[in-house]
User: What shape does this take?
Amino acid sequence: MSEGSVNVESRTSSQDKRWTIMAALLGTSTAVMLFQGIEQEKNYRYEREIALTLIASTIPFQGIYFLIYTFLLENNGKLSEEMMAKLNFASALCQVVAYVSLFGVIILWYTMSKMVGIAFTISALIAMVLVRYSMNQTGDSSITE
Assistant: This one.
């Protein structure tokens, strides 16, 4: 491994959690867009169109999160405090926007079944709160610490 490359083993547990959550959201968004997009062509539904629009609008933010994350890892210790603060803010903003993709999934579940939609909504909200709570328990407030 070259000196300038990203050392995967040096990442903290909190960083891995954030990365894993974003990777899961990106994978889910991509899969939903693929399969629901195919279904939308066969059987158009307005609700599905709204859901797919929400999901599609979050994918660029999910990708930008990975770019920022990788840039911060590769340049750890080389950036000014001001630059670090700006990039950490942008990263956090991308994470928040990425969570909007869950609303698109919620809409899809509601159109399938009201009961499934309610159950998924409650579960998603509880899961987000628990994940954020557990991440805050570590005391790690930035990507590169």
Notes: The chain is about 80% helix and 0% strand.
